[in-house]
Amino acid sequence: MKRSLLISLPMLLVTGFLFFAKGHVSNIQLYLKIFVFSFINTLFFLMIYQRKVQRWRSILFTILAFSFVIHFVSSLLEQRGSMFITPDLVYQNKVPFCPLVITTTLLPMLFKKIILFPGSLLEGKASIGTMVVLWMSITILLGRGFCSWFCFFGGLEEGVARIPTKSRVNLSKTWKYLPWSILLVSSLLSFALFSPVYCVWLCPFKAVTEFHKIVSFESLMQFIAFFSVFMIFILILPFLTKKRAQCGYFCPFGALQSITNKFSLFAMRLDENKCKKCFLCLSKCPINCLEKKHVLKGKMPFSCMKCGSCIDACPQKAICYHVKGCLPNKNYNLLFLYPAFLILAIMSEKMISSALYRLFLLITTGSLLNG
Amino acid sequence: MEGFLLGLFTGQGCLVGCSTLLIPYMLKEGRGMSIFYFLGGRLISYMLLAFLAILFHNFLSAQRNLFLACSSIGLSSVLLFRSRAHNNKKVCLGNIIEARASKPLLLGFFTSLNFCPSLILAFTSAAKKESIFETLVFFISFFIATSLYFLPLSFIIKLKKFSFMEHIGKISSYLVGGIYLLIGLYQLYQIFI
C-alpha cells in the first residue's frame, strides 16, 4: 500500500501541475477539475496497487471516448449550429484534424508536398504539423500503444465490448488483413485522386463527430457508407465478439501504427521460463492479434496495442512491458506506465471536465450549450 | 518524339493512377505475374486507341463517359474474378497463358482504357496526326515513355515471400474491384437515367 502510494505520488504532482496551471475557470469548472483530477489519480493508484493495467486503463479510456463525443459535438453546435461540414469551413482550414487522417495524407505529403486535409487543431491555434509532431513523439515512445493510450475513438467500441458477458461470434483470422488492405487502397487512391478517400467515404467516427450535409446522391452514398461502418464495427461487432472490432479489423491507422511498433522504445515481453502455456491471454486480446504460435515462440505479436489485457490475464505474471535492447527488469512496467498513463490523463482531463460541465448545463438549463 | 516527351512528362500520373489497381493485383498473384504482361495489355490497348483516334475521334470524345463506364466494369471483373488457374495442376501452354498472362493482360488493357488526364492529352494530340502510321508511332513512343515509370514496381513481386502479403493483396483486389464496379455502374446510371 505504502509503496503504491509512493509510486503514485509523481503522477499526482505532474497531473496536478498540468491540470491546474491554466488560467481562470468558474467555480463549478474548478470543482469538476478537482473531481476529474482525483478520479484519474485514483485509477492510477489502483493500477499500481492491484497490478491490473487493462482493468483501470479501460475505464478511463472508455470515459474519454464518450466524453470526447459530448465535448466535440457540443462545441460544434455552439460554433456552427450543426454537425455539418460546409465547403467554406474546409477552405478556411476550420475542419479539425484528427490522427486517422495521417494515413491518407502521408503519400501526397511525402511525394507532392501537398496536404490533402487542410485542417487545424485547438480551434485554429495549431496547424496539422503539430498533430504530426505529436503523433511521431507518442509513436516513438509507445508504438501502437497509441491506439490504447491516446486514441480518443477506440474507447467507444471498448465500452460497447464491455457490455455483454460473453462473446457470441468469433471473427475469422483472414479479416485481420482488412485494415492493411484498407490502408493500401485508401493511401493509393488518395494519392491518385488527391482526396482524403478514407475520411470522405469510410471513417466510422464521422457518425459521432462531423460530416458533409446530404445534398446530392454522392453525399447520400457517403453517409450510408460511413454510417454502416459505424453500426457494424463500433456497435454490432464489438457487442457480438467482445473485441475492439474497428481497431483490429478495419482501422488503417491501426495498421500503420503496427509498423511503428518496430521503432518504438517499449515492447511487450513474454518470459518463457514463467509461462505455463495455459493460453489464457489469447482470449483476452481485444484485437485477436495474440495467437498460439506467439506464446509457443515466446514472441509477442507485431500488431500489439500494449493495452495490458494479456498482463492482467496471465496468472504467472509472465507478460510485462519491456524496454527494447535492455535486460529484463520488473521496473520497466512502471517506466512504461508513467508516460503512457500521463498521455491518457492529459487527453482525458479536458474532455471529461468539459463533458461533465456540458451535462451539468443540460441538467440545470436543459441544453448542452453555453449561454 | 512528341509522344515520348508527353509520356515522360505525364507518366507519373499513369503510375499513380494505375498503381491502385496494379499493386494489390501483384501482391495477390506474386511470381505468377510479371509487370511485362501488364505492359503488354497496355500496348494492345494503346494500339487500339491509335486506330480509334483516327477513325472515331469525334464519336469517342462524345461518348467518353460510356467508354469510362465500360472500362471500369471490365477492370472490376478482372479484379473480382480470381484466376482459377492456381488450382490447376496440369501444365500446358494453354494453362500457363491463362494463369500468367491473360489476367494481367486484361488488367493492363482495361486500365489503359480509363481515360486518365495523360491519356486524354495523348489521345487528343494523336487525333491531329494525318496518317495512321504517325498515330501508331505516337502511341508507341508514348507507351515506351510511360512504361519506364512502371518498371520499378517489379519489386512488389518480391514482397510475395511474406505470406501475409498474399492475403492483403487478395482483399485489396476485391476492395478495388468493388470500388471500380460501383464507379462503372454509377457512370452507366448517369448516362442512361
Topology:
The complex is a heterodimer of chains A (371) and B (193).
Chain A: H1 2-20, H2 27-50, H3 53-79, E1 84-85, H4 87-91, H5 102-112, E2 120-121, E3 126-127, H6 128-142, H7 146-149, H8 154-161, H9 178-193, H10 197-202, E4 211-212, H11 217-241, H12 245-249, H13 252-260, E5 266-270, H14 280-284, H15 292-297, H16 309-313, E6 319-323, H17 332-365
Parallel strand pairs in A: 1-4
Antiparallel strand pairs in A: 2-3, 5-6
Helix pairs in contact in A: 1-2, 1-17, 2-3, 2-17, 3-8, 3-17, 5-9, 8-11, 9-13
Chain B: H1 2-29, H2 35-55, H3 57-62, H4 64-80, H5 93-113, H6 117-127, H7 132-150, H8 163-192
Helix pairs in contact in B: 1-6, 1-7, 1-8, 2-5, 2-6, 2-7, 4-5, 4-8, 6-7
Tell me what you see in this structure.
The complex is a heterodimer of chains A (371) and B (193). Chain A is mainly α and 371 residues long. Chain A contains 17 helices and six strands. In chain A, helix 1 runs antiparallel to helix 2 (27-50) and helix 5 packs across helix 9 (178-193). The radius of gyration of chain A is 21 Å and the shape is globular. In chain A, 44% of the residues are buried. The mean pLDDT of chain A is 88. By secondary structure, chain B is mostly helical. Chain B has helices at 2-29, 35-55, 57-62, 64-80, 93-113, 117-127, 132-150, 163-192. Chain A binds chain B through residues 174, 177-178, 180-182, 184-185, 188-189, 191-192, and chain B through 16-17, 19-20, 23-24, 164, 167-168, 171-172, 175-176, 179.
Features:
heterodimer, A: 371 residues, mainly alpha, two-stranded antiparallel sheet, 17 helices, B: 193 residues, 8 helices, 0% strand
| Arithmetic mean pLDDT of chain A | 88
Q: How helix-rich are the residues of chain B, as a percent range?
A: over 70%
Largest sheet of chain B: none
**Largest beta-sheet details of chain A:** 2 strands, parallel
Class per helix and strand makeup of chain A? mainly alpha
Poorly predicted ranges of chain A (pLDDT <50, ≥5 residues)?
none
Mean pLDDT metric of chain B:
73
Helix content of chain A: 55-70%
From the N-terminal CA to the C-terminal CA of chain A, the straight-line distance is 46 Å
Distance N to C terminus of chain B: 43 Å
The total of helices of chain A stands at 17
Overall form of chain A? globular
User: What is the string of helix and strand elements of chain A?
Assistant: HHHEHHEEHHHHHEHHHEHHHEH
